Amino acid sequence: MMVFMVGMLAFAIDLGYICTVDAQLDRAVDAAAIAGAGALIEGTAAAQDRAVEYLVRNPVGGTIMMQDESQLEALKAEFLARYGEDLDVTWGHWDSDTRTMEVSDQLPSALTVSLTYSNMPLFFGKMLGTDSYNVTSQATAIYQPRDIMLVLDFSASMNDDSELTAISTVGQETVEASLYQMWLDLDSPTYGNMSFTPEWVTIPGNSLSFDVTWKLTEVDVSAAQNMQQVRLYFDNGSTQSFNISSKSGTWKGTGSKSGRRIDKVRVKIGGQYETVDFYNNSHVRRGLELDGVDYPSQGDWDDYIEYARSSSSSMPWYDSAVYSAGYRGKFGFLTLVNHWNKNKPAYDQTPILWKVSAQPVTAVKNAVDVFMDYIRLVDVDDRVGLSVYNSSSGMGELESELTLDLDFVSDAARHRQAGHYHDYTNIAAGMQKAREEFEANGRVGARKMMVLMTDGNANWTPYGYNTNAARNNVYDEAELCAELKIPIVTISLGAGADVALMEDVAEITDGLHFNIPGGCTVDEYSEELMEVFRRIASARPLLLVN
Fold first, then answer.
1. Domain range spanning residue 492?
2. pTM confidence score
3. Which tens digit of pLDDT belongs to each residue from 190-226?
4. How is 61-99 classified by DSSP, letter by letter?
């Protein structure tokens, strides 16, 4: 009886040990499969190395024990020397129907780790006729497919860093370089005789042979023959005449008229008079050779002429930034595209602006491309959709349903421009469109995630402009997404973004918030934005399936 009891005790001890080792091996192999699958994006060699690392970090039965990180590389080599022949790491694609893995090197999305520990010693095995045993475990980890909705801000402020008003924050050289790049983006178009850099307009006489160059407070006049008189008409209604006998010269107000703006000039040649009116748009068009030239935006050339010429808020299209930059009364593509950015940004106003690299909207488009490139690194059936705000009605616009066609989504974003449909910012409406797309077309087994980006503040509702209501609507949408277990990754871009709101949305939905603050250069925030999208794309959920 005593021998029997001792035998049973020995059996129980060894059985308990076997179960413990078996559980330890399962844990180690599971960890290795998850770690290895997570590294597939870095290549299969990195994935295999990561799997071995986690086998070392999770020792079985007191085999190889790591005391500190400095031992890791040596212990990995020792582990492979001891167990390499019994370790099998394969990668490929998981077939959920057959629950098998198809081995493949083409953008693998699954990794299997199989490991056998041979001849594991038993405490009392000899009493039962054996002193060792073998234990095997296998695990497969896959990237879980994701349904991702991008919710992007295409309000009018998304070109602000490419407007003259941004000179105070990013500098005139940077802004003008951006505007110059836009000119190149449009294949360096020529309208009349305007060049890129704004210049004073020279207007030829209509009936008499002379040219007059208007410089706001002075004029240069040249004629084919001697002039007898040049008469200046000032902005306050006064005049000043100069009786002369010369073919050219520069004239401006003197005495009490010194420094006054010249609105018109009358030239006398051979006893005949002709007046050039700098506030008569037909005269300016003649000087710029714009008659018969199609205007590429909504409106006509008169809009631009008035924009470049306006000197007070009582005048049409007045923009103090034009004066501050030194271009008031001058004409060229630089101020022309600035006028479009500021006053005609929508697609139905200036449809060519989607082509230009306005900032920060172009940084967002480039980041979307990077995002798609990272998603393509692993073939895991991630789907992406695109919602933008605002639509032409001030709500959200679903530009793309959830789709595997990543090029379609990138192309849709690329063909949008700042203020594409609407000037204002209805963040909640963009979120609503994305949420409704998840509810209508989201896959049951996919991990759902919303990526929300803004450079400004919520200010628009279904009832019009109302910042408080618009902000509250964002909180309401965040709560709805939280109920549906949809985490929202929020991105605040620039000094004007409502960082607190974006932080709250991420917290409510168990998401993450990234802040790209103002005060940095376009290149700096462009790189930061791309890095954020890289991190989001590469943070793939992993799932043990076997």
1. 147-162+356-544
2. 0.79
3. 999 999 999 999 999 999 999 999 999 999 999 999 9
4. TTSS---SGGGHHHHHHHHHHHHGGGEEEEEEEEETTTT
